[in-house]
Write a structure and sequence with these properties.
The complex is a heterotrimer. By secondary structure, chain A is α/β, with parallel strands linked by helices. Helix content of chain A is about 40%, strand content about 20%. Chain C is an alpha/beta fold. In chain C, the strands form four sheets. A six-stranded mixed sheet of chain C has the order 10-11-12-7-13-14, sandwiched between helices. The chains are: A alpha/beta, B mainly alpha, C alpha/beta.
């Protein structure tokens, strides 16, 4: 599956002689944050690539995976490398919003479609020449934030305290929840920030508690989401604790332990697919993916699901594009873009119905509310 | 902010500060004896936690693999050195020390890991592992460069930091771990809630500092280390091997950092890359002590812990800015009040 | 530090650079762009850390300042990017001046930590300001255009980046081989010596710091318009560490080390990215591990970085002899009756210990005066008082009738008192010529800007010629272009005298010049001093070696316990009972 590596340190002659990929293959470039602060997102995504087939629409597919260490410069460099060296027809990545924003430039310059795996809607909005080439598979933060606000309203929450990461993910969620909360008539009375490597969040939590909110929303991804929980519990906070979909992984449950019981979060349906009714549109696809993933890697990951969804989108779009042009050409990439823009498929996270103004295409079917009970995920009906 | 909140913040700050202080001491120790700015100290802290966490789940921690690998490399380096100098007779003893001992330690821990022994035993195993790792690191990465300039040694430290972070990711994965607290009780004193765990952290830090002070003041080895710190060439002339001094220093420093890791594990989730920022804060403490004075370094680390705690209450978004900006006037004050000997490189 | 020994090698380098975008794959251009950007920052570090010895981890923050200034101004106000560059440089200079003023006062190890401190601070400031896009960043930065040309394509940008990189290399290289450059080279570990020759070390450090910051700012500006997106992560302390890494790995002693380091590290990362998955399978993340190990190995085998290895294989041209030039203005030597230097009841007390106890003596013009005495007599302290290295507790020292007590070393140097040091303080990697030329620091006036733009040619020629004259005077012409550290100790001491002569002094203070010399070397030194005296030089000689002193000096002053024990001709001193008792115990 790996292409033959070119040893770039050698001279130009050697680089020309050593083969690049064969012309008729489809090359899919992937850049993920498999090291660095976002590694807990990138590693399951990389694992998922291992499960993907190597043919689509009868043509051979090369998945070329690079690590961008959660760094924007590296993500952009990787994108440029994939485009000019590996002549990819489409780029998948990156795992984080800033990385994806940086990569857009490369995608647009070269006319290569890009499927981002990151959270913020800003990656694909507003619709303009830059975002024309960019798509994304994860649910927009806005979609998830709305679900949280709705749930809070239903639980009679009037005031909300927020504590989240001091990074793009935390910033993004804060902006979204403020918007959604306002619509739901909930007031945000405290905003605190923390870093995943902070040894303690005592100060922030004390400040939050002193504002006495009915509920606290923690804007984190991965196991660091447990840190404020432990502190809130230690301080005897009695209000409701909400999390974001970023903590929907089993390591979080492991670290948070019984302190996590009672927490509510929005998540992609695949997290609790066994508890979905059979009539649920997403259940079958989600099951396929999760079973395959768990067989090889142990525990499921919603982040990995976004990669699988990218594959599903491509598995429908590529055959369309193949009708119009050969892989490796500018026309093919343009056709692929058009095909992606008209996607209408069921993925592991939801049903994608895209159009020119919506390059994500997910709706309420892409989210469910989940509660932690007895240290397990339980679907909230 | 009322008194109870201030007390909680102070408690938090002192607890963290005690942990940074151990780190600061390790850094001062390493620098004074070997002139190495030991940036990977943070990784040793993180690995301390993660090793213990691994033992907690009954799995032989990945640290053992590093131990074995380094032992092999050190053995090869020693062999090469002995042969080149024509001292083949010394080889068996050196190999026994550099390769044999670590292998025995690794085997022991590997054998005992699945038994899920009680917490104190696991802590002991963790400390033994980390302490053995320290001198190996010195032997493999630093000893060939022992006479290089401070800048080069610093860059080697940086490279080593990258390597250890990468190894950490490989062996411990991207997600973090916590270790169980020694005690989860707390009591109220004068209206303020004090947790026993915090007390234990501060107490054990003080105990370790006390033990070190005794070691340096009363034992021959301790004095030998102090001699090397003051004058390397002079110490060598009276028969103190700089290599031995370096190895012993790193063993002590690794012990300090490993212990820090054990103390910090119950307080927060530790990741494969948590070491860097923790190490940095210990480094701040060490510098406040001028990289030479232990009490001031410890005090400096405590100050960092307190500033961090209070500023995370006042302005959590700008916490790092406050901590690192406030350090600057302290540094300025320190640099103006200490006499400086020009480094003749 | 000269241009490449061969102009040809340099020409080849530029030619290869120019041709890359035309023939190489597009990704090479991408890499070339980043290498250029990193080289500019690393260059600043070579100057700041490698040469001036001020370790800075915070350059990434200055890159960020440059990038964010232009990002903000061009996206929010539609300012022209070129104007944004100027504004960015002004802001960076202001911030660097401020930070430098605070942190460069710190000595030793405090400085690197302070750079870490504000490096991290600035990062979090960037990330927390809404107006700068917070952690998510700012996109939509416009591309540069120049004379109607839009510099959007990577190829065109490549030429811009490398033009700027080469210009920076040129300027920095000029700077290093100039009057301020020699002073900068003395900042690392030779501060006391530099100040004795008139260098205002504190000011110079700040200037170098600002220079490095400006280079980083330019790199940041280029980066913003290349990526057309900025967010805080590339400006974190880890990137600051990498820049330092590049400088040291490449060879922090040479401007080419910056380019080499940037190239090696960037290419190595790419190679690892390609090769490792192929070797180890895709499941691991070994790049960081292998990278770290390779760097450790590299440093173990190449402590001074890689550039010295390359320099060795490049063709070297023998430097041309120093061209003669019009002499620098000589010091006005109005002859005046009376002693040249008078020490009047000089007293130095350290707490309760009186090191120099109301000492009085004089040095007459044209004589060689020896200051001797048993150990602990206070000779060195007296020397420090005269040279300005220590302050008088009471009493006075007068030079040519004017009081110099309490003046700082560089003022005393300016008056025409030259000195050597007890422990030789030459800059070992610098040539003898450059070391001696440093002595003429106060006789020149070029500042950093003139030096960087190579506008100081005329003055440089004169200074070099002056230095060559001094070297000829002391008889070391055949060593003119040797590295000063490669000479034996005796010759190094003579180089120090040449350096003192280059300042055109009237009085030479020699601090134990014969210490550690072999017999023949001492004879050479004595011959030189006699020759200088016959040209009218006045010399104060502090010494231990009796034979050396007796045969050379005109008069002697003997000290014991901080006081003058005896004074007179050498023959008389040798018979003086009090002196014999002080040195040998009681007379038999």
């Amino acid at each position: 599956m790996n292409r033959v590596p070119t040893l770039r340190a050698l001279g130009a002659a050697l680089a020309i002689v050593l083969a690049g990929p064969a012309a008729a293959d489809i090359n899919i470039g992937v850049t993920l944050a498999t090291t660095g602060p976002a590694a807990s997102l990138g590693i399951p995504q990389k694992n998922t690539i291992e499960l993907l087939p190597t043919t689509i629409g009868g043509e051979k597919v090369n998945w070329i995976v690079l690590d961008d260490a959660s760094d924007t410069t590296k993500a952009l460099t990787n994108a440029r490398k994939l485009i000019s060296e590996d002549k990819v027809d489409v780029i998948v990545g990156s795992s984080t919003t800033p990385n994806s924003l940086a990569m857009r430039e490369a995608a647009v310059d070269s006319g290569t479609p890009m499927i981002s795996l990151a959270a913020s809607a800003a990656i694909i909005n507003p619709t303009d020449p830059k975002t024309r080439w960019v798509f994304k598979t994860p649910q927009n933060d806005a979609l998830m934030a709305d679900a949280v606000a709705v749930s809070m309203k239903a639980n009679g929450i009037k005031t909300l305290g927020y504590i989240g990461f001091a990074d793009a993910y935390g910033d993004g969620w804060l902006a979204e929840i403020k918007r959604s909360a306002q619509t739901a008539g909930i007031k945000v009375v405290a905003e605190e920030k923390y870093n995943r490597n902070d040894p303690s969040v005592t100060g922030q939590v004390l400040k939050l508690i002193s504002a006495n909110p009915d509920a606290v929303l923690i804007g984190a991804a991965g196991t660091p989401g447990a840190t404020p929980v432990k502190e809130l519990v230690a301080r005897n906070y009695k209000g409701k604790i909400y999390q974001t979909h970023g903590v929907a992984n089993p390591d979080f449950l492991r670290v948070v332990g019984k302190d996590g019981n009672g927490q509510i979060l929005p998540a992609g349906p695949m997290l609790v697919f066994e508890q979905l009714p059979d009539s649920n549109e997403v259940k079958k696809t989600a099951a396929e993916y999760v079973v395959k993933y768990e067989q090889k890697f142990g525990t499921r990951s919603t982040f990995g699901g976004h990669v699988y969804d990218a594959y599903i989108l491509l598995s429908k779009a590529i055959p369309e594009a193949l009708k119009k042009a050969k892989p490796g050409t500018k026309e093919f990439r343009a056709a692929l873009r058009d095909a992606l823009e008209n996607s209408n498929v069921t993925g592991t996270h939801g049903v994608f119905v895209m159009n020119a103004n919506d390059h994500n295409g997910l709706d309420n079917r892409a989210r469910v509310m989940v509660k932690v009970e007895n240290e397990k995920w339980v679907l909230v009906k | 902010m009322d008194l109870s909140i201030a007390a909680l913040l102070a408690q938090d700050g002192i607890t963290n500060g005690a942990i940074y202080a151990l780190l600061a001491l390790a850094l001062v120790l390493v620098f004074t004896v070997t002139r190495i700015v030991w940036i990977p100290a943070g990784e040793f802290v993180a690995w301390g936690t993660l090793t213990l966490a691994g033992l907690q789940t009954g799995v032989a921690p990945g640290t053992l693999k590093v131990l074995v690998g380094m032992a092999v490399i050190a053995g090869l380096m020693e062999a090469w050195g002995c042969i080149r100098r024509g001292q083949a007779g010394r080889l068996p003893r050196r190999l026994a020390a550099w390769t044999g001992v670590p292998m025995v330690v690794a085997a022991l821990v590997w054998w005992l890991a699945p038994m899920q022994l009680p917490l104190p035993v696991q802590v002991l195993l963790t400390l033994v592992t980390m302490t053995t790792l320290g001198p190996l690191l010195y032997r493999v990465a630093y000893q060939p460069l022992a006479e290089a300039s401070v800048l080069v040694l610093l860059i080697v430290s940086v490279a080593l930091h990258f390597t250890l972070v990468g190894l950490g990711l490989w062996f411990f994965g991207a997600e973090g771990s916590r270790t169980p607290a020694f005690s989860s009780t707390s009591f109220t004193l004068g209206g303020v809630n004090i947790s026993v765990q915090s007390l234990l952290v501060v107490a054990s830090s003080l105990a370790l500092i006390g033990a070190l002070a005794l070691f340096f003041g009363r034992t021959l080895y301790g004095k030998a280390l102090r001699a090397t710190a003051v004058n390397r060439a002079g110490a060598r002339l009276v028969g103190i091997s700089p290599d031995f001094a370096g190895a012993l220093t790193f063993a002590l420093a690794a012990l300090l950092c490993g212990f820090s890791g054990v103390l910090i594990g119950p307080i927060t989730t530790v990741y494969y890359d948590s070491g860097f920022l923790v190490g940095l804060k210990g480094f701040v403490g060490a510098i406040i002590g001028g990289l030479s004075s232990y009490p001031i370094a410890a005090a400096g680390a405590l100050l960092v812990g307190l500033i961090e705690s209070f500023s995370s209450f006042w302005a959590s978004a700008f916490k790092e800015v406050i901590v690192f900006t406030l350090i600057i006037p302290v540094l300025l004050w320190r640099s103006l009040t200490t006499t400086h000997h020009e480094e003749d490189e | 530090m000269k241009w490449l020994g061969s102009r040809a090698a340099f020409a080849v380098f530029v030619a290869v650079l120019a041709v890359v975008p035309q023939v190489a794959p597009a990704f090479w251009v991408t890499l070339g762009n980043y290498i250029g950007l990193y080289s500019i920052v690393a260059l600043g570090l070579v100057l700041l850390t490698g040469v001036a010895g001020q370790t800075s981890f915070g350059q990434a923050a200055f890159v960020g300042l440059g990038a964010y200034t232009t990002a903000y101004l061009t996206t929010k106000y539609g300012t022209s990017p070129w104007l944004a560059l100027v504004i960015g440089m002004v802001i960076t200079a202001a911030v660097a001046l401020f930070l430098g003023f605070i942190t460069l006062r710190m000595k030793g190890h405090y400085l690197p930590l302070a750079t870490i401190a504000w490096g991290i601070s600035l990062f979090y400031v960037f990330g927390n300001l809404e107006m700068l896009g917070g952690h998510t960043g700012m996109s939509g930065i416009p591309a540069l255009s120049f004379a109607g040309f839009e510099l959007k394509s990577e190829n065109r940008y490549y030429y811009l980046i490398w033009t700027i990189t080469l210009a920076s290399l040129w300027a920095t290289n000029n700077l290093l081989d100039s009057r301020p450059g020699r002073a900068i080279r003395a900042l690392k570990g030779r501060l006391e010596m530099a100040e004795a020759f008139g260098v205002d070390a504190a000011r110079l450090k700040i200037v170098v710091f600002v220079y490095a910051a400006l280079l980083a700012c330019i790199s940041g500006w280029l980066y913003a318009h290349l990526q057309r997106f900025v967010n805080p992560t590339p400006f974190f302390i880890t990137q600051g560490i990498e820049y330092l890494f590049m400088a040291v790995v490449g060879g922090a002693g040479s401007v080419w080390g910056a380019v080499l380091g940037a190239t090696v590290i960037t290419l190595l990362k790419q190679v690892l990215q390609d090769v490792l998955p192929w070797m180890f399978g895709r499941s691991g993340n070994f790049e960081l591990i292998v990278f770290g190990i390779l760097m450790i190995l590299l440093l173990q085998f190449a402590r001074d970085g890689l550039w010295p290895w390359i320099e060795r294989i490049l063709p070297r041209r023998t430097p041309p002899p120093v061209p003669p030039a019009e002499p620098l203005p000589a010091r006005e030597r109005a002859t005046r009756a009376g002693p040249l230097l008078e020490v009047r009841k000089a007293r130095k007390q350290f707490g309760g210990l009186v090191a120099v106890n109301d000492l009085s003596f004089e040095i007459r013009p044209g004589e060689i005066l020896g200051l001797i005495g048993p150990n602990g007599a206070g000779k060195s302290t007296t020397f420090s008082l005269i040279s300005g290295a220590a302050a008088l507790t009471s009493g006075d020292i007068r030079f040519r009738g004017e009081s110099i007590g309490g003046e700082p070393p560089y003022e005393i140097a300016r008056r025409g008192i030259g000195r050597t040091f007890q422990h030789v303080k030459l800059i070992p990697q610098m040539t003898v010529l450059d070391n001696v030329a440093l002595g003429a620091y106060l006789r020149g006036g070029s500042g950093i800007v003139r030096a960087a733009l190579a506008l100081d040619g005329a003055e440089e020629t004169r200074i070099k010629a002056e230095a060559a004259r001094a070297i000829a005077r002391v008889g070391l012409t055949e060593h003119t272009f040797d590295a000063a550290g490669s000479l034996p100790l005796g010759k190094q001491r003579i180089v120090e005298i040449a350096r003192a002569l280059a300042a055109d002094p009237m009085l030479l203070l020699l601090d134990e010049p014969a210490a550690g010399l072999r017999f023949l070397e001492k004879q050479e030194l004595a011959a030189l001093l006699r020759s200088l005296k016959s040209d009218g030089m006045t010399v104060l000689l502090v010494e231990h070696d009796m034979d050396f002193v007796m045969g050379l000096t005109d008069r002697l002053v003997v000290m014991d316990f901080g006081e003058k024990l005896a004074e007179g001709q050498p023959a008389d001193i040798q018979r003086n009972a009090a002196v014999l008792e002080a040195y040998l115990g009681s007379v038999v």
